[in-house]
Structures
1.
Amino acid sequence: MTAPEEPTTPDTPTPKASGAGPAPDGAAQPAATADVPGTGSAPQPEPAVDSAAPGEPVAAEAEAAAPEAAPEPDYKDQYLRAVAETDNVRKRARRDVEVAHGRGVAKLAKELLPALDNLERALAAAEAQEGDEHQLTSGIRLVQQELIAALGRVGIVQDAPKGAAFDPHRHEAIAQMPAEGVASGTITEVYSAGYLLGDDVLRAAKVVVAQ
């Protein structure tokens, strides 16, 4: 009695890796890569692209972004301004001193002028009676002239304008009289002298004017 024969099955070929052919002798077989479902192959990272142009454009953008530096102070201009201001202060101080001095002199002169007027009248009366050769009146006349000279040294000038044209800014007409051979408006007599301090009239001269 013989044993029954086993059924034979056809040989099933072993599947080969896709894309892999027979490797030549001695060559390394490349490793199989697994496909990512739905993507085919793994994505490769893209190289970073520098949007800025090389060189100067980058520096220009940096300068534009940086805050503007404060301008340096102009020390020369500040110095010149300080010098000019100091000079103005000095001039104002000098002018104020001159004005104060002039006011003080004018106030003193106004107090002295009536005394000078009385002295002049007394001398005129004495000289009319005794003559110019009298020693007393001559000595007093010298004192009067010295007082007038002292006023002149501080800027006060006597104004006795006999024969000059009448000036309403400097003279006060107390009378108008006809005078032969004299032009109208001419001062023919000075009743009391005037006094000037620079361009200021301390006292107007009292005069008689020809018609």
2.
Amino acid sequence: MANIYVIEVPKWGLTMEEGTLVKWLVSVDESFHKGQELCEIETSKIINVLEASSDGVMCRFIAKIGETLPVGAVLAVCADQPVSEEEVDTWIKEQNITSDLFCDTEIDINITQFGKDVELNSVQSADIHSSVTSDHSKSEYIPEILKGACNADINLATPHALKKAAQWGIDLRKVSPCGKRISVADLENAIRNEGGYVIPFGYPLTRKAFSGSCGDDTDVPATPVARRLAKKLGVNLLDCRRTAKSSRVCKADVEAAAYQLNIGQSTESSTIPLCTESSDHSYFTTEPLSAVRKTIASRLQISKQNAPHYRLTIELNMEALLNLKDKLNVTYPDINITVNDILVKSVSQALIKVPELNIQFDEKQQLIRRFVHADVAIAVALPAGLFTPVLRSADKKSITEIASELHQLFNRTRAGNLQPEEYQGGTFCISNLGMYGIQQFDAIINPPQCAILAVGTIEPRVVVNENNEAIIKEMMTVSLSCDHRVIDGATGAIFLQNLKKFVEMPELMLA
């Protein structure tokens, strides 16, 4: 007898609460082996792959691409050997997955009608596959292009899909399956792609307001996502059903309560419009924030609001550093040493000289952590967002070691293969926009770090030498942002003095 089981959203790191399904790497009915990559999941930091813990067969996808799910939510149903759709359905019913495991899976439904998106409240995954109400004029719109005689071939579609296709009058030959057979999800995708919509069974088209509770809901068990949403919407958790695992409130429960409370709506009975109008949608598109972008936005907003930034600026003569770079590249032709590599070394040495900047600040506990070695983070801009891989103990490494390790770190960052220990922590950050021709800019501190160096471009400038002569030198402007709660202005100035000394006389780093 086959062993049927589920795969869930894993917990990668102590702070991980949720993940977004980016891509399935296997298909339904496809066999996989232990260690094979099954899907890509985006966390608040990186995109990682979930590997199979044993050999098996992918039976049914539960989560959909783009869904953000809490840790432990069901992603898919698998088995150790091929099984039929009926066996999977029976197992799901026996395990009571509909009311237990699926309840933490929260899906935001976007209904598309005639090319326009209409947002409805979230519903639970179990509702997605429920039958549609008989009032087709309100609950669904099936595009004419999909309509036709339903082919009742069991090899062409799953039993559920055959039933739905017959109900909706869809010609299965006009639907492309994601797996070996057409599923209900394939039907829904085809409907949306052709400009139609389907409203899940039981979704109310009208609603009336009722007054909410005022009691303390602190002890009401709820998922982290649901608790944050309830706080944002002003919903008391006492007014919510508890349909998630362990009788907890989930996101769908909060949204249902908000819907019944008419939060943000008129207190009179209102009807949900199936089509919205605006002035002109042809000039823009919309897209949701990714998990990475949400984290960046949240952390930098908190930093800007909570940390009193002050900024110090200084000019650096780069000619000695550029000469050193050229000599090192001649001596070590296999290592492409850059200005950034030597700058990381200079910053690490300055941090050891001025350890008051080589710190982290725990705002919650009001503690300063002082570090023996300089763990330097370097900002890397990618289409998905800003990442800050950390070079550990940079002060103990040679310039060639720094160049080699940074090259490997940057490659893993671009590939999305960073491990948590490679981007967490750090005692200081460098953000370099010089390659874009930016002369000077101010950067926002990345907590729990307390300082960040903004690096501008290298360019020829007229300067006055010790003989009061105007000469041209290769110069660069850097700006230091510090958290005034833990770093005084004079301390920041001393750090920049030491940095200037190491940059303009790099031989001192060899002492």
3.
Amino acid sequence: MLDPARRDRGGAAVEMAIMALPLLILTFMVVQAALVYQAKGLALAAATQGANAARNYGSDATTGRDRARAFLRRVGFGITDTDISASVSGGTATITVKGKAQSIIPWMTFEVSQTAYGPVERFTR
């Protein structure tokens, strides 16, 4: 009969082989979630910058779009394929930034979209 210590020999390697794949997948999921969260934050920050520029007295939607685009050029690592739409109507400036988050999984894409708006400044008497 085998000694109990000898029967467990190599058990840790088998357990590690079984647990390695789920742990690796979990790690990738956590990192991917962080990348999506970062992309959403960047999209919101760019939309806010654009809305603040578009709502200034004498500004228009093009000014807001350009400001959002410039912001993404400066700090936009983490969001790709951006599309920025801007409008100023009814006393409200609205900027929407859409894009894709960086992906560590090649066949998956994660789209993000954030909108910021604010009242257009105007002089009153």
